[in-house]
Specification:
Number of strands: 12
Distance between the termini: 43 Å
Number of helices: 9
Structural class: alpha/beta
Largest sheet: 8 strands, mixed
Helix content: 40-55%
């Protein structure tokens, strides 16, 4: 699969590395050409500008901060038409506040900025170091990764990329549910970082979930 990566930060590195290892062709694009080159050299990918990465990829990962992603994809315009646009951002601000409170999700904002793209939300619930694990397996179970989107082919492609990281894709519903993933991330980050709590402990075993 051809994958374009928009961004050169920790999430771009953490996700692109196992995808290259799995045999995918990856082009890393950034506004800072030298940063893109360094990341690409380190993981065995190609480098270029943001537009080059968008044009290259069948799947394009937006690994950009909330707000920046929508601006960038709006500028890329037709380069994203028909592409699978994968959003891993978390719109979480000071005090672990959800920055989209009362408005569209970060994923929906990307979809509005790139109306020709097929947006999928995934990979937003964990710190980048989790994606660097080989593989992310806890208590004998591969980490489950919720995936939200409206296009079946796009969901299938992203599910393949989830498996290539060593995780299990979990159908999370349509893109309208992406905001729930983002809110979950805000809650979990607040519990993990703000309170030092074990957020995983809030969910009962499946056998008890429905009463």
């Amino acid at each position: 699969m051809r994958i374009g990566v928009l961004g050169t930060g920790n999430m771009a590195d953490a996700l692109a590395t196992p995808w290259v290892r799995a045999g995918h062709q990856v082009t890393v694009g950034g506004r800072d050409a030298r940063k893109a080159e360094r990341l690409a050299e380190r993981i065995g990918a190609r480098s270029g500008g943001l537009r080059a990465a968008a044009e290259f990829g069948e799947v394009v990962l937006s690994a950009l901060p909330f707000g920046v992603g929508a601006e960038v994809v709006r500028e890329l315009g037709a380069a994203l038409a028909g592409k699978v646009l994968l959003d891993c951002s978390n719109p979480v601000g000071p005090g672990f506040r959800l920055l989209t409170d009362g408005g569209p999700s970060a994923a929906r904002l990307l979809a509005q900025a790139a109306p020709g793209a097929r947006v999928v939300k995934a990979f937003n619930l964990c710190h980048e170091d989790v994606w660097r694990m080989r593989p992310p397996v806890f208590d004998g179970r591969p980490l489950a990764v919720p995936v939200c989107g409206d296009d079946e082919e796009a969901l299938a492609r992203v599910s393949e990329l989830v498996r290539d990281v060593g995780c299990a894709p979990l159908a999370g519903g349509g893109l309208e549910r992406a905001g729930l993933l983002e809110a979950t991330a805000a809650l979990f980050i607040g519990l993990w970082v703000g309170e030092g709590a074990d957020a995983q402990a809030i969910a009962p075993p499946l056998a008890h979930a429905a009463g």
